[in-house]
Write a structure and sequence with these properties.
With 253 residues, the protein is mainly alpha-helical. The chain has 9 helices and no strands. Helix 2 runs parallel beside helix 4 (75-102), helix 3 packs antiparallel against helix 4 (75-102) and helix 7 (169-178) packs parallel to helix 9. The protein is globular, with a radius of gyration of 20 Å. The chain crosses the membrane at residues 16-34, 46-66, 78-98, 119-144, 211-233.
Length: 253
């Protein structure tokens, strides 16, 4: 009798841990963007946040969803992709709204101009939405044609997770260009690091496709490189600290 009760308790505990882990995977990825979103809204300044981060995550998660048509993976990872796509569109909407409000005299650029020099630097949110929809339709069509090819499916999976692994590189490059991490939410990067570490462990424990955990490790390395930039540029400033009315997210800590 005692063994039966113990087995039931262990089963219930296992189910609870499984549900918590699944919820953490689904929603944990978007949590780091909450402090960055709040900082941009409060300061009405989006210069410290690279919108190419949104581009990387949109491409990666669209490709991951398409990859699932060729090779099954855990359902929480699918929902994570859906939630992340919605979150990145919300971030883009905010950034474009702030830019349009602060750059009134700048010439408007749109996706339909097809000017490569202004790719992902358009004036309106609708232009970003058009680009995302065009990419989704094109990628879905190619996937439909080549879905029977194992090589294509595996390459698609690798491209999806490798693109996501490069998530931090736009921010890394933005910080390098600015010689500062001012305007970037340090809380966001700390949450990236903890979330990517948890996610990589989840991939290993659930025996996810090998592409997932290899690129997860790469993602953690990029996160650590950004944290090193925070330390280096704060200890060895490359330019005078701005004293404008904008309160930077780096001061949040």
């Amino acid at each position: 009798m005692d063994e039966v009760i113990m087995d039931q308790i262990m089963y219930a505990a296992h189910q609870a841990v499984s549900w918590i882990a699944s919820l953490a995977i689904i929603f944990g990825g978007v949590v780091p963007y909450i402090p960055q979103y709040r900082d941009i809204r409060r300061t009405q300044n989006a210069e410290g946040f690279s919108t190419y981060v949104c581009l990387v995550l949109l491409v990666a998660n669209i490709l991951r969803i398409l990859f699932r048509f060729g090779r099954f993976f855990e359902t929480p990872l699918l929902w994570q992709s859906v939630i992340m796509i919605i979150t990145m569109l919300i971030m883009l909407n905010l950034c474009t709204s702030v830019r349009m409000a602060t750059e009134l005299n700048t010439k408007r650029r749109s996706f339909t101009d097809f000017d490569w020099n202004y790719f992902w630097s358009w004036s309106g949110f609708v232009d970003y939405l058009q680009c995302v929809l065009a990419f989704t339709v094109m990628a879905a069509y190619v996937t439909y044609l080549l879905l029977d090819s194992v090589l294509f499916v595996e390459s698609l999976g690798f491209l999806a997770v490798f693109t996501e692994a490069m998530l931090g590189t736009p921010q890394l490059y933005c910080n390098y260009q600015n010689k500062s991490t001012e305007g970037m939410s340090i809380k966001m990067v700390l949450m990236w690091t903890s979330g990517d570490t948890f996610k990589t462990g989840y991939f290993l424990l659930t025996q996810a496709p090998v592409q997932f955990w290899i690129c997860g490790l790469l993602q953690v390395c990029v996160d650590l490189a950004i944290l090193f930039q925070v330390y280096y540029f704060s200890r060895y400033p490359q330019k005078p600290v701005s004293h404008t009315t904008h309160t930077t997210s780096a001061k949040a800590l």
